[in-house]
Amino acid sequence: MVEGRLEEGEGERVAIARMTHEEFARRMERPAVILLPLASQEEQGPHAPMGDFMLTEMVAEMSARAGGGLTAPVLPFGHAEFFRTIKGGIQLRASTFTAVLEDILASFLDHGHERLLIFNGHTTNAPLIDQVCRKVRRQRGVLVPSLNIWQSVPDHLWSALYNEDAGRVRGHGGEPMTSAYMHLFPDLVRFGAMRDPGPRGSVFGLPIGGVSASRFEGLPVQIPLDCTEVDPAGMLGGLASLASAEKGRAICDHIVRHTARLMHHLAGFDPRDAVRPAASRPDVRQQGESHD
Predict the structure, then answer these.
(1) d(CA 122, CA 56)
(2) How far apart are alpha carbons 234 and 226 in whole angstroms?
(3) What's the pLDDT at 181?
(4) Which residues in the chain show pLDDT less than 50?
(5) Nearest alpha-carbon partner for 161 in 177, 176, 142
(6) How far apart are alpha carbons 197 and 178 in whole angstroms?
(7) CA distance 6 to 171
(8) What residue ranges define each of the domains in the chain, with the CATH number in brackets?
(9) What's residue 284's pLDDT?
């Protein structure tokens, strides 16, 4: 690895951006799951660079190599209205983001490349991704799954890395992004500027819990706030002070291995015919969802 990028000499090319169109066409003669990385350009606290898309891009390439697939170029801008008050960020409108994602998907689906996996490195994108994927399924009959990479770290790994602090290290400006930066881009981390979130104020006389969360009589109330109203530096949670390059390596390695296994799994299914009735899987225990 040189200057935060993977060496091309490590094997067959997996980044579509560095292929010629003829090389891509030849590679797609063999079945391949294609990762579609999505990320953002937004503040990550006073200690980390705003371009978190760099992390997503690199982890996507590592995952594609491990999973025997390919990765599209990263979409470096996402949607998060509450970050607009921070200078230097680039936020797409919801309508712009969904239109761009539809066009990205269409660019592959129009050529019959249907084994796609959205590799989402920006949690706030998730509801819009769901909307687009449902629309694509209605219009084209193709199921496109999505993986929220930073939320795919299991509880047992959090506990192993952070012990009794596992429940409070996670959050915007804290973990896991800080450790990932320390592992993949250590020269870009401003260690002297690192701090944990400060105390929060109130809104309508209620405690501020986040950019859309407060409580009245112990029950949740949604109030749309900007990130700087929660914390002047946009530190929305977590503990950056507990980050380390070693933890970042463990987290990134897990995401790569997990994504690779998912890619191999998805490669065995037709995305136009992937749903099976419960009777055909008697060994699978049903898990309900609550949408009340």
Answers:
(1) 9
(2) 9
(3) 96
(4) 1-9
(5) 176
(6) 14
(7) 28
(8) 8-153+249-273 (3.40.50.10310)
(9) 56
